[in-house]
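From the pipeline queue, job 12 of 40. The input is one protein chain; the requested action is below.

Action: predict structure.
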Amino acid sequence: MRPLNADEAEDAAQRLIADVRSLLDARGSGVPSTRQAEWQNRLDNTLKIAGQLDEDADFVMGCFFEGQPIGLITLNRPSEGDSSGRRALEIEDFVTHPRSTGAGSALMEQAATVSHRQGYGGNLFVLAQDGSREAYEAMGFITDGIWMTLNPSSPENCNQWQLQSGEWRRKKDPTKLSAISMAKRDAAPSRSTRTRE
């Protein structure tokens, strides 16, 4: 997980797009026929969002696994003319690789941490599309008119979010590996359990 400048963000988006196009070329291999339309829609949405990524946003972050981008998020401060009174960063773009696990949570943790460090308390808001609302709700967002908002320190989120050493973290299911822990595991030198005879 790391911040990206505009050139790095564009490169990561293009690499993500190329990988997703290869999945399209595979014509859903491994996906049950009953879920083909859903899979096609997921791939199409990923291509659309990655293709429109705002590389010049106030904050751009990428999640990588073995050097390959598996997720991107862009955030902006509230605009000068925003009369809503929101004290939160706006999620402009949020996209994860369709075959990744944990990248969305890792990116959202980083976004909440950036919000916290910028003086917004970890609060975020997004204009979510219908197909993504369920994923945002699973991360603790609530519907606020046409927007969805996250306040990780709210009573509703005390079982999902915690502030640790100035960084927002989702409370994890210990049986699941996050994208970050998988990357750390793969980066660590392997330890042989064999003894020399």
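Job complete. The chain has five helices and nine strands.
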